[in-house]
Amino acid sequence: MIACMLSIRQNHRIGSGTRRHGGSAPQRTVGVRGRAAVAAAVLVVVAASLMYGVEHAAQPERFGSIGESLWWAVVTMTTVGYGDVTPVTTAGRILASLIMLLGVGVVALPAGILAARFAEELQGRRDQLAAQLDLALLDGSVNPSEFEELSRLSRDLGVPKDTLDRMLQTKSLRHVLVPKCPHCGKAID
Prior knowledge:
Elements: H1 2-15, H2 25-55, H3 66-77, H4 90-136, H5 144-157, H6 161-177
Helix pairs in contact: 1-2, 2-3, 2-4, 4-5, 4-6
């Protein structure tokens, strides 16, 4: 199991060098997610096998096979923890504690990191659109050709049209309330 994890980690280090700075966050994480999914699957099978070996004699109805133990391993490693199947032996409880901690590191924590990277990417796209909208509003309004260009950029960035419309309303209102110099764009006091 450890050798498998090290192999996956080494492959990630070698394979990610060319992709480290290119593409969007979702594109950069596709290979990482694939390797993480393989590592998680291997760990679930290993955890189920170990728990089967430890708990089968004490609870043959709950841990009757490695396949049945997979349910416990998936529920435990994903931190769902239904409680329908629990270890009763001391060795099983110790093993379960280790598997729970491993589940947080292998499944729950990376899911949060991935969600944060997607949120950062989306915010970056909105910021890029907002910057172009600010440029279009330098003269006080957005003309039809500027609106068409903003709509195209919105589509290219994957920002929904309703988000563009809200941004336009908010920024247009702000522009009216806080007049700006037509030459430099700075707010006029």
